[in-house]
Design a protein that fits this description.
The chain has 297 residues and is an alpha/beta fold. It has helices at residues 18-21, 38-55, 73-83, 114-118, 121-136, 140-155, 158-161, 176-193, 214-221, 262-277, 281-294, and strands at 29-31, 58-64, 94-100, 106-112, 167-169, 196-202, 232-240, 245-253.
């Protein structure tokens, strides 16, 4: 099952206002209710820059005190995300935190790009619950600051803090039982080699991903790789939803090249090609892992 998050933490309504259309493109604090002081807004903008630099992802805050009358909440958020050109990285990843001060008030979080795949419902609920504790104390700036700090530390340590999570099947190519089998095979390889190994699949159209460059971005952005040189390997499948055709790549990082030469990698690619061509993804991935393991025996 894909680990996906695209939910409402609390019901919310938002829309672009005419004032929103006039904001500077570089701004990520859209305070249409005048909630923040100038100093707080400046501090939040600076913190967002830090979040962007540490994670490679975007962060935006929207505050409004008006009822815009939208029924389709997600479409409203999507409109704002697109019109403001939010999102960073090859998959235009962003988190948008919306504080609606109309009526009783609501808090809503929407995620895009990689964060749709990386986060589950409980993750965003945890973010919301903790931020709201700050809001109850009228420390709105503090709530958003806490969110940025906690989320940035979590994102850059996924590989470190989740040693049993190495199959990222965002394209939903595998069954749950396949994922369990693949995770077990990867765990065995890691125990044997002392190096990391990942399986990654995507279906999103991304910028500059013609040759599978996203694999490298994903690997280093989230703290994968063992040892000082962050050694490991990654199988990457990039699925085209229109044609259901996929390209596949194998990437080596750190000291892996010392054990798996380019000649050996070419042989591994050739040997898995028939299985890949037949769509036998699990069997192909298991064969690749076994071929890598042979280089360490």
């Amino acid at each position: 099952m894909k680990k996906r998050l695209f939910i409402f933490l609390m019901a919310a309504v938002l829309l672009l206002s005419s004032a929103a259309l006039g904001e500077e493109a570089s701004s990520r604090v859209f305070d249409y209710a005048g909630l923040f002081s100038a100093a707080d807004a400046e501090a939040l903008e600076a913190a967002i820059v830090g979040f962007q630099e540490s994670t490679g992802y975007d962060f935006a805050i929207l505050v409004s005190g008006l009822n815009y009358g939208y029924d389709d909440y997600q479409s409203l958020c999507d409109d704002f995300y697109l019109s403001k050109s939010l999102g960073l990285g090859m998959n235009d990843t962003a988190i948008l935190c919306y504080l609606d001060l109309y009526g009783d008030g609501y808090y809503y979080i929407s995620v895009y790009g990689d964060l749709k795949n990386l986060m589950v419902n409980d993750n965003l609920q945890y973010l919301a619950d903790n931020a709201i504790e700050y809001f109850y104390d009228d420390d709105f700036s503090g709530g958003f600051m806490w969110t940025m700090d906690f989320l940035s530390r979590a994102l850059i340590r996924i590989g470190v803090d989740n040693p049993s999570w190495r199959v990222f099947d965002f394209a939903e190519i595998l069954f749950d039982t396949d994922i369990e089998t693949l995770e077990a095979a990867i765990a065995g390889f890691r125990a044997l080699s002392g190096m990391d190994f990942l399986f990654l699949s995507t279906y999103d159209e991304m910028k500059d991903n013609e040759n599978g460059e996203y694999a490298t971005e994903f690997y280093f952005r989230h703290g994968f790789g063992d040892g000082v040189n962050r050694s490991g390997a990654l199988i990457y499948l990039d699925l085209d939803l229109d044609t259901l055709y996929f390209n596949y790549y194998i990437r080596c990082f750190g000291d892996m090249d010392e054990y798996v030469s380019q000649e050996a990698l070419d042989t591994i690619l050739d040997s898995c090609a028939p299985l890949m061509d037949e769509g036998e993804i699990l069997s192909a991935a298991l064969q690749i892992i076994d071929d890598y393991a042979a280089c360490f025996r």
